[in-house]
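re: ur question from yesterday

yeah so i grabbed the chain u mentioned. its 78 aa long if i counted rite. heres the sequnce exactly as i have it in my notes:
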Amino acid sequence: MKVLTEDPDNVKALWRRSVSRLATHEYADARADLQRVAELDSGLAGEVDAQLRRVRNKEEASLGKEKREMSGILERER
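ran it thru and got these C-alpha cells back, copy pasting raw so excuse formatting
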C-alpha cells in the first residue's frame, strides 16, 4: 500500500491491510498489523480485540480443514 510506504503508522491503512491479509489467509501478518494498530491507538482496543478473535477463528478453521484433508489423504494411501 502506497500510504504505508509514506506513513508506516497510518492506523486506517494498517487496519485495511489487516482485513485484506485476513481474507488472503495471511494470519500472522494480519495479526501483526492489528497489534501495531493497538499500539498506535489505544481507543481502538475493543475493535482490535474483536478483529484478532476473527483472525484466530479463521486460522483455527483453516488448520482444522487442512488436518481433515491430510487425514483423508493418509487414509486413502493405506
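noticed a couple things. The chain is about 85% helix and 0% strand. also The mean pLDDT is 92.
anyway ttyl
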